[in-house]
Amino acid sequence: MEKRVRFDSKLLPYLLIAPQIAITLVFFFWPAGQALWQSMQVQDAFGERTTFVWFDNFITLFNDDAYLESFKVTAIFSTAVSVLGLSLSLFLAVKADKVIKGTSIYRTILIAPYAVAPAIVGVLWTFLMSPSLGLVTHWLSLVGVHWDHILDSKQALGLIIVAAVWKQISYNFIFFLAGLQSIPKSLIEASSIDGASPMRRFWDIIFPLLSPTTFFLFVVNMVYAFFDTFAIVDASTKGGPGRATEILVYKVYNEGFKGLDLGGSAAQSVVLMLIVIGLTVVQFRYVERKVQY
Amino acid sequence: MIENRPFSTFLAHLVLCIGVVIVALPLYVTFVASTLSAEQVLQSPISLIPGDQLLNNYKTVLFSGAGNQSAQVGRMMVNSLIMALVIAVGKIVISMLSAFAIVYFRFPGRTLAFWLIFITLMLPVEVRILPTYQVISDLKLLDSYFGLTVPLIASATATFLFRQFFLTMPDELVEAAKIDGAGPLRFFKDVLFPLSKTNIAALFVILFIYGWNQYLWPLLITTQESLYTVVIGIKRMISGGDAATEWNLVMATAMLALLPPVLVVIFMQKWFVKGLVDSEK
Amino acid sequence: MAQVEFKGVKKSYGNVDVIHGVDLTIGDGEFVVIVGPSGCGKSTLLRMVAGLEPITGGEIWIDGKVVNKLEPKDRDIAMVFQNYALYPHMTVRQNMSYGLKIRKMSEADISARVAKAAEILELAHLLDRTPRQLSGGQRQRVAMGRAIVREPKVFLFDEPLSNLDAKLRVDMRLEMQKLHQELKVTSLYVTHDQIEAMTLSDRMLVMNSGIIEQVGTPKEVYERPASLFVANFIGTPAMNQIWGVRAGQSLKTDQGDMFHVGEFPSTIDNGGRVALGVRPEHLQLVPEAQARFSIAIQMIEWVGADAYAYGQFANYRVICRLDNATGARVGDRLPLSFDPMRVHWFDADTGKRI
Lengths: 293, 281, 354
Prior knowledge:
The complex is a heterotrimer. Chain A is mostly helical. Chain A has helices spanning 12-38, 56-62, 65-98, 103-111, 118-128, 135-142, 153-181, 185-193, 198-228, 230-235, 248-259, 262-292, and strands at residues 41-43, 50-52. Chain A has a two-stranded antiparallel sheet. In chain A, β1 (41-43) and β2 form a beta hairpin. In chain A, α1 packs across α12 (262-292) and α5 (118-128) crosses α7. Chain A starts with 11 loop residues before the first helix and ends with a helix. Chain C folds into two domains: 4-233, Rossmann fold (3-Layer(aba) Sandwich); 240-347, CATH 2.40.50.140. In chain C, α2 runs parallel beside α4 (136-149) and α3 packs across α4 (136-149). The longest helix of chain C is centred in the middle third of the chain and has 18 residues, at 166-183.
């Protein structure tokens, strides 16, 4: 889409766009370029000499069990967060779309977690599920579950999943509700005249019509689980116990600042970039489809 | 409504109530804990009835600091506010300007500029932590408000939102302005800007929350307590482990950290939802 | 007030020519309507005068000056848009005064001009409303008001009435006529509606695919259409056309039917292929013996005072205006004739009038 009429000016557009481009180049492209460059170099122990090694760092990386383990943790974590978060919020949105009274109260409370910083979310859930004094830990013990995420790696993963899902429910809920409200009432009415039960109506009509929204949200949730949950992890489990909750982003951070293996850390960054690029491409191809739909 | 079945409506309300309780529980417990004394908060199970230490706790954290550090939460909140405002306003300003240039001018390099901005979508801070830290440190921007805010104000999403909005504006509006004798800057100031107000408000809500809730960035950039934001501050408070942590004060700080953005979302709900939905189009 | 001249004006996008060279002089105070089907280039021509489209060939003169390189604001023109293009966030008063404010006119002069225009257009009581609060007709007036306050040399109208409903359009048409008589400003008006063109213009310009088919007063254009295209485009229902070759004093249609015409224009040779055009109102119902040809009525359209009978002769649709009193019915045979002086001849190849 293009404008038919524009302004003519030689200099002005460059001045207008300069601030954004300047920031983009200095703080986005320069570091990204450095990451690419460093990912193909090895530095000696004293930081005096660097050697260009092509893809050696990547080969080392993918032969490293700890890295592959982190990949697995990330995959489990992000899938669990997306699937759980989407189903819970879809369920709530369907119910919220059904009721007439009180919608605004429900909505107001359900969107509140969006505003809570991920780091704070980590702190809140750490407190709620603290092995010694957590309220949820206490309730779990009443039904015979012994909760100690500081020792139990599965429970630690459970903790960050719960915290991440809790925060993301708001976002999903808003989009699902908007999607549900944009389904023409006449379609629902037509299907009910056709004699479809509410359950069938949901699976035959509503769910397929929501599928663009669902797919879009799935991608957004994956991105969220991959990158935006750094603060949740850092404020709750810190990647532990052992490396049970060390998702890729957390590993880059940890090793970049503590391990001092510049080349390896840069290679990890490059892998992450490729993942974001992949997800963004998927998202945008989908957006194009949505426009046609 | 097609079926008017009281039972299904009742069921919907029931499900929503349970959902709301689960979602609200962490926030409520946080509030309760922030009103208890240091001993009460360590009892298990924790009380679900607010205690009487509310004023005391909040006064302590706001003005004297808590835990193993002396920084005042009041100071941190000011830092958070500065960060949130500069990021929100900065992003809106530079995104509007660049979207204006891209939509309303034709100039060599326009497509390149568009793609440069687009690609930033694919480079979130999280994937370039270390090199970005090096750049900031080379530029001597560590521990400065400039370093804390400016690198975050380039935003592809906001630029695209404005671009999309400008593209929906009727062409005749520019033509009428041209015939009326308005140049580009005049058109921007008198027509485009006033018409963008709802979009700006919507985006402001989203960006304020984004700025206030930043974690990784201030963690990298700040080492001095005087520059801590409240989100960073609270995390430093719990680094001592359960026993050493004054949970009542931590929770009071958490309340202070989450209230501003939560209130913004609740009271500007209409704009928030619009901003969220629009910026993903 | 000023003269507007087009000297070989052309417009092309890349290799595609959309306007193929327009030469025309619009006199001082004249109201010229450009009419044509959508996509014929009429709006582009207007927008070139406004300075909203670059001119790719030739020159446009306004008031004795070439304006090709001038910005719209320096051409001293005002324009009324189809969708009005009012600034949604400004009141009627602000909309009308914006152009004057930019030209740094004094507050007093601005409010005097706005007050005057508001009075002419009966907008005085709406000055503090925003466009959102106005009806379509009122918005249209504001758009006109914005043009009037500028007191420009030339008014440009880009289908200003097309967004109104039928009744309002008739009212506004009359009002525009009145307004033009009052202000006497040179005006260029684009429309696809032939009634607007006929009623408003001093002279009209019929365009088709980037070419001017005819320029003339509405009467000239109606009575002596310069081409088959004009004959078809102007007049409702459209002119009847019968194609064939001259065979002595008769016309032999492509299907082989013959009828007597009488006098042919001298430029049509025996055996030359032509199109004969005759307007529905010029077909006369005559006794069988005097008929040149006849049609069977397939359909009758009653439009108040008159009725139109639709039928077929050879392979051509023939429409004939009937007096309401005729009492003809579907299925009846109508013997028809025409006055040879009322017939139009067109070259079958070029479509030009003979």
